[in-house]
Amino acid sequence: MNDKENISKSELHVLIIWEEARYKETEIINDLSNNFNVRARYNITWNNGNAYKNFSRFYAIKARYAKSKMKHCGTGEFILLIVEDKEPIYSYRKTNDGEELVNKRVFDCKVKYREWTGNGHKIHATNSVEETSHNLALVFGVTYEEYYAKLPKTFKEESFKRDLIGTNGWDNFPQLFNVLNNTLEYCVLRNFEGFFDNMTSEDHLDIDIMARNYEEAQLILNGRELYPFSKRVANEVIVSGERVNFDIRTIGDGYMDSEFSEKLISSRYLFENIYFRPENKIYFYSLLYHALVHKERIAADYENRFEVMANNLAISGIKEQNDKLSLLKSYMGENCFEFVEPNDLSVFYNFKLVGAKSSFKRHVVMKYRAFKKMVKRMVTLNER
Description:
five-stranded mixed β-sheet; elongated
């Protein structure tokens, strides 16, 4: 395929020489200097015991693969180089994820240096500006633009010992979302009004996000799965020393129709330069879906919110539940969306209301929960 030249501006890329490749660091750095402008060098050491978690989060891989990566790449001090490509050219290359459009010169250098170090993966380099943004966010906690703006014009070298941002918990929500914004395709599903003023309201304790990939989102958040042996997606995340639950919904998990979920992410926009949220119209209908399909009854605060949102969208006549349901069904039909049963059995599914069917497994779970409630009531009565 023909090369595609990027004529907009120069690019920054990250190249890492992991510990096990450092015996070739002089040759690699000399060759890089002949091909690019090497802007900065960081000698980085991760804290003992966190290497597997850092590898896992950096590459979005499970712990068992991260441990293999540790053995292959080493866990001691590594070199992170910032290189500037003043004349970036993009071309298709075969990668681990198939054919991708990548920065040709950076990618080809990565392949060459991997050959020099035994044909493994002891050299890491970013294929695009988007991947550079991902790496900079996790390593330094800044955006690509912020890093570029503060980078000295003369060569910079620095040494430090610390883990990836968020590995030991998040300092605050702005830090967390700054990293998410540059590493993950996601959007906050709801309850983001007054987000940082009231993160854990009495009625809605969880932060619900929609992402493309559950495992990647869970690793970036550094979440601890609260129910690791079920399909529940609740993750405990430490923010400012406090435990916050993130429910990570993904496309295809049955929480909503896959096309509905896709539209939520594709319509997202960065709100107040803090976090991604859905566009107003689809947000309204996703909230309507949640209130009608995922709840036994509509909460009072949702009723108030629907009234305000409907007025803003010039929608009228939805005071009654049947009116809301009729409006939702019309929207679903226009977009070819379907009512679907969540894989997560802890999520209520109001299948009768929408005229759908539920699985046998869900019926069994519902019966079991009803039995538990009955036993609990009987015990309470006997104790009196």
